[in-house]
Amino acid sequence: MKNKNTMKKIYLLSVLLLCATIFKGQTLTTNNWRISVSEGAGYLIDNRLKWGVQVNPDIHYFIHPNWGVGVKYSFFTAANSWDWQGTLETPPLPSLSSWILPYHVPLITVNTEQTSSIHYVGTSLLARFRIGDSRWTISPVLSGGSVFNKITEKTVITDIGNKVSSRSPSSFLGDGGDVRFRDLSDTDSSSDYFIPIPENQPVIRNGFGISTGIGIEYSFNKHISLGTDCGYFHSFLKKDRISRLDFSLGIKIYL
Asked: Parallel, antiparallel, or unpaired: how do β-strands 136-160 and 163-165 relate?
């Protein structure tokens, strides 16, 4: 509920700023085209991944000195890993004695690494108005479009009782191969045994997303400015939603 109220407040503020710039406010440049490329960080709300990196190119054409329409693209990626413990049950193999691979292993330690990438592209409405007679400009934006989300997970069994992996993690990071474990009390390599790890299939989701934000930029001349942006992104995916706060710094080129 709190996230929804925050989102409504941000949308309302952006709409009010857009309306205000239509009726008043001067511009430093009268060039019709604006190309922007920015990079920064994003924070996922109510998500295990939390912080990530984003890149945001966009292009707009000003049909009015104060506001324009265009296309906005955003790419965001975040990764995180965590350890968890559980039990592993597997039948004994005929070729191995039961003490090497018992039917029930009481406790295992597993490391899971998750990576999420979010692509967004949509049409947008951008406004700009100059702060007094200074070189500073404020630019709110509203956008709506398509979202593509891909989530991948890699799982590594790092410990089974007093047995540890005898292979490098890169050789069995969720690739569907086998994991070799060795009893630390036995130096004989013949006591090695394997536990298969099922392949982790990526989760791919599509949906609709909306993005809103506001930026402030300093113009060096009529063609180039440097600015910072903060915004809010929300996507409606099947059986899930993603909310994110964005912060970025980039260059704006007016043509």
From this structure: antiparallel
State the pLDDT at residue 81: 84
Q: How far apart are CA 100 and CA 192, in angstroms?
A: 8
What letter represents residue 170's amino acid?
S
Q: Pairing mode, if any, of strands 203-219 and 224-237?
A: antiparallel
Task: Give dist(CA 22, CA 13) in Å, integer.
Answer: 15
CATH code at 2-254: 2.40.160.20
- pTM for the model: 0.70
Q: What is the pLDDT of residue 14?
A: 58
Tell the residue number behind the tokens 């990079």, with chain if given: 39
Burial bucket for residue 97 (CB in 10 Å: 0-12, 13-18, 19+): exposed
The structural domains of the chain, with segments of one domain joined by +, span 2-254
Please give the sequence-ordered ranges of beta strands (E in DSSP) within the chain, or none if there are none.
Answer: 33-45, 51-64, 67-89, 104-127, 129-130, 136-160, 163-165, 178-183, 193-196, 203-219, 224-237, 240-254
CB burial of residue 5 (10 Å; 0-12, 13-18, 19+) = exposed
Strand ranges, E, within 65-160: 67-89, 104-127, 129-130, 136-160
Asked if residue 41 lies in contact with residue 54, where contact means CB atoms within 8 angstroms, the answer is yes
Q: In 3-state terms, what secondary structure has residue 205? A: strand
Look at residue 183 in the predicted model and tell me its pLDDT: 40
Pairing of strands 193-196, 136-160: unpaired
Counting residues of the chain whose pLDDT is more than 70, the rounded percentage is 61
User: d(Cα 175, Cα 218) in Å, to the nearest integer?
Assistant: 49
Residue 185 backbone phi and psi in degrees, to 5: -85, -5
